[in-house]
Amino acid sequence: MANTETALKEALTSIEGATGVALVDYTSGMALGTMGGSKSFDLNVAAAGNTDVIRSKMRTMEHLGLKGEIEDILISLSDQYHLIRLLKGRGGNGLFLYLVLDSSRANLAMARHQLKKIEEDLEV
Amino acid sequence: MTMIETPPPLPVRDRATAQDRTAGALSPMLRRLAEDQATGVLVREHGTLHLAEGRVVHAESPHAPGLDVLLTAHGTLATAAWQRAAGQAEGPADAARLLLDARLLPEGALELCHLDALYDAGYFALSPSSTPGRFRYARAPRLGPLPSVPVIALERETLRRRLLLHRLWPDPATDSAPLIRADPAATAPVTPRQRAVLDRVDGVRSAPEIARNLGRQAFHTLVDVRRLAAAGLLGPVPTAPAPPPVPPAPPLTVTDPDIALLKRLRDALEAL
């Protein structure tokens, strides 16, 4: 059983190459918790902006008639990976984990696996 | 009234320094209480904020469903379990501690639901009000197992939420008025979450009532409702135009020539 802070701390320390992590409510765009980030990378701004990414993808899936649910979304930049993982539970009261990785140090498959594990520990 | 405007700062004693410190504050009083690390309860027109050592530990608003509703509505916790805990405890924070101790509730779920409820009620508590707030100092700070948030974080989030709503659909009328479906309805696609909201629009319920009915955060429902309004699927119930003033009773002296003629005719007939 983990609380929000320990879950975020675990993500930041145990995932190789992680530079920032946030737990975000995607209806309001509010970050319920953030860790890491920097002066030049405001996780709160990233959190709010990425809710639009998820909404847009969900709408597209609906138009296409796809029944599956989004597990995660990967955005790869030239020097970073951004990994978005949607949380299940709580009756779909949408939350997502947002993880920023340094692409030169990160192992993407491993990061994805670990993030899934952290989501399960969070028990929400 | 637009939701965007912050109310003008209330007059403060120490003007020279206070003006820069409380500039842009949603509630200058709250900002001062935070700086003084005050403990107590701030009662505002649309909600109540509980402070402990200058941090917000709990918020309530008649417009936002409480922690109990958010926890029990989606099966995170059985209603009976909450009622049992609430019966034994003095307040929601104590009840939460009992549930944690009894391992009926994961810590993470409780924390997140608490933060959801706090920011949700805080949004309404900090909405522009027409009456000044009142603060009641309390002696012992009640720091329960639940996280608290700095006043500045709550203010920042509340402002961000106002802007978000304004961007979605600039008319705040749908936030509090009873809602009715648009007729003829537009054919915009809606998400399952929005469908649940739309299904409860009946010309009587307002957005906060729909939120309570669904066990969702009131602000989330405001977001859905503004998006539905922007898509032309619903709107506020039009307020009935004031009934036309009752025409004054006709004077007893009759001036209508026809009636006068008829009267003379009647009198003449009676005289026969």
TrEMBL record, chain A:
Organism: Streptomyces diastatochromogenes
Entry protein name: Dynein regulation protein LC7
Top-level taxonomic group: Bacteria
From TrEMBL, chain B:
Amino acid composition bias (Pro residues), ranges on this chain: 1-11
Spans annotated as Disordered: 1-21
This protein's name: Uncharacterized protein
